[in-house]
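pasting for ref
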Amino acid sequence: MSVANYEGRDDILVCAASLGHLKAVRDIHSFGWIAPANSTPEADAMIAAASRGHVHVISEIVSWGIDPDTQNASGISALESAAQGGHVRAIEKLLSYRPKVEFGDALPVAASGGFLCIVDRLVKAGADIDGRLNYGTALAEAASAGHIRTVNALLRAGADVNGVARMESPLTRAVQGGHLTVVDILLAARADPNAYMASCNEYPLIRATLLGRLDIVNSLLSAGADDVAKKIPAFFQTERSKTNNVEIYRRLLEHEVKLSKRPARSRTMLHAASELGRLADVRTLLGTGIKADTVDEVGRTALHIAASTTYVEVVSELCQAGSNIVHATDRFGNTALHIAARDSRCGETLRVLSHTKIDKYAENLSGFTAMDSIPLSRGDKIDILTKAGY
């Protein structure tokens, strides 16, 4: 059957180009097949040849008048395809057709693969070192994959160490990948250690903690990752935080204490763990020596927070942390007993608190005791306090 009448002619052409069979490519093309509308078999063949580095096939197809910058149905050009495969000679051939050839995503694609020679060649040819289309910046892609030499080369060439692409910076990508050496290189180049990772609603320090990477945590803290009290609670906001890495907790707490020379008045890890009922985390944190009676911006201790929940075991654990936390009052004069009495969900929590040494008759700034704070509809809570000797 004549190839010109064979429906699979386009596939044969692309296959021959991909395998580098120049004579077959010429023979198939010579039949003068009229391609259907919106079909670009010759361009697809050129891109397939570029993906395998077949320079002679690329030259042949371009000689037919095919635009060397044409993209396939997936939006990939021959230059990007050659960069993805790491084919230096194919890159050189395609760059020789400039200015017809656009760089597109060739640079970040090459950086992602760690193809240093191609990265250098594209930068020298004028590719935008911080440009991005469908990928992150070249530096972010190299950092994500842990390509140390490529990261160094891009930084020397002037890449923006804090350039954000796809809502992430090179540092956050390196931390996500767990690449300590790359993290250190970027931090030495003044990467922002507090860069927010919008894609997963985290900070580098929290991501390193989730990964259990004490080494990266230490690097970030040494570089100035700060405001731990405000950021670390986000660590507890996800079911992914299953680690109980005591050394990381201890290191973060040491840093938190170092940052604050006065008693901390902001939400801490213990507040967050108590609110979410993370009993194991509460025990771990108390074991590190954290001050259980540290208060947040409205004067609440972790026990105040736990008192508004149904996590009875957490409440019991905190009550054993000392008399200071049991008797503490918030900015409004409320004890934990006031909080539990007021919240309609917390009958069992109230029961536990009522059997501690907490002052059952303490009045808040409004002059209300815990009994006064109980909603009239909750007779069961009145019974609890009455049986507890109110």
